[in-house]
Amino acid sequence: MIAIAGILTFGFLGAIQALYGPLLPGLERDFGIDTSSVGLVFSAHGLGALLGILLPSLVRVRALASRWSSIATGLFLIGAAAISVAPTWHATLACAFVLATGFGIHVVRLNSLFVGGFGKRGMAMSQLINAAFSIGAILGPLCVGRLHEPSTRLFGAVAVVALALLPLNALADRKGRYRGLAPQSRTSPALPSQQWPGRLLVAFIALMCLTSGAENCIGGWTTTLALASGWTFSSAANLTAMFFGSIFLGRLLAAGLAHRVKPAPLVIGGISCIAALLVFASAAHGAPVPLAVAGFAVAPIFSATLVWLGAALPTSPHANALAIGGALIGAASFPPLVGRVIGEFGATAAPLAILCVVLAALAVAAAIHVASRH
């Protein structure tokens, strides 16, 4: 029951996260804001999700300990319903923050369950649950594209889905508790973590921050870049769906490779491929198609980094939550920064701006890998 609820909920998470990018042009139009300001929706989402990661640890009330999935889904319901009727831009940001708080609760608890609860198959199971996330992320932009124009009214449908998921998550809460499920790898540490665990953890947090920031920049701004290149809105939204579709296929492939390839090569190889595609997009004056194809390279990075971290710091009880928190900080911080670059230099500057983030991630990953060999 927990697995069924987790897979369906993760698909829902993907749909929510993927909605924002195609909706950006409509948000600009409806609230009379510029490109730099509209990127703040990513900040609201990322900060709310970060609070959701920390909330179960901060609020240690026994009555809530086995009900966090129901609470998170309830926050989805409230936030989505409020976004669909929010009268102002600031109200929309506040509602997105509420919705994202539930998002963060689910992300950290379900990732911890699927990475830590299946032993040596943890990376494969994590890739599969994140593949469910990708299915939702494909459907989200496709639904927006069918509207022919972006509108926050679509969040009314999101609220209806959250209402349908609420009893399923409540039943899962009754069937089992998500307490104490942080991933604890039995693998020997890949590097001398006992000597410098603090620096190692900071490096992994930075890596998650940069890679998730780059992923959200690509998913968030692909529609805008395609529109600037002359695509129709429906085609541009479908291109964003293609990005998440390539992530889905890539995660299925990564799940099959999980037993044969170590996490470090998957992470470094994926980041390198993203960088190459962004170089091509920049050289082609902001061509949006390479960004959509980059989803194949993005696919294995999140789960493989968590497994890599678990092997490097197997005795750190909070490493997983902190790393996911770093990912959400990156998701909140980098898309608005890219939005400022777009506002200053135009949409064709987006691939180059994202490339800077990816190259920084590659440097951090390479440093961790080199240190692990000594």
Structural summary, described in words:
With 374 residues, the chain is mostly helical. Helices cover 80% and strands 0% of the residues. Helix 1 runs parallel beside helix 7 (122-146). The chain has 16 helices and no strands. The chain has one domain: Up-down Bundle (Growth Hormone, Chain: A), CATH 1.20.1250. The model is unreliable at 178-195 (pLDDT under 50). The N and C termini lie far apart (44 Å).
**What name is given to the CATH topology?**
Growth Hormone, Chain: A
Mean pLDDT: 82
- The poorly predicted ranges are 178-195
Distance between the termini: 44 Å
Query: Which structural class is indicated by helix and strand composition?
Result: mainly alpha
Describe the sheet with the most strands.
none
The count of domains is 1
* CATH superfamily membership: MFS general substrate transporter like domains
Helices and strands in order:
Blueprint: H1 2-31, H2 35-38, H3 40-58, H4 62-65, H5 68-85, H6 89-116, H7 122-146, H8 154-175, H9 197-228, H10 233-257, H11 263-283, H12 289-293, H13 295-298, H14 301-312, H15 319-345, H16 350-372
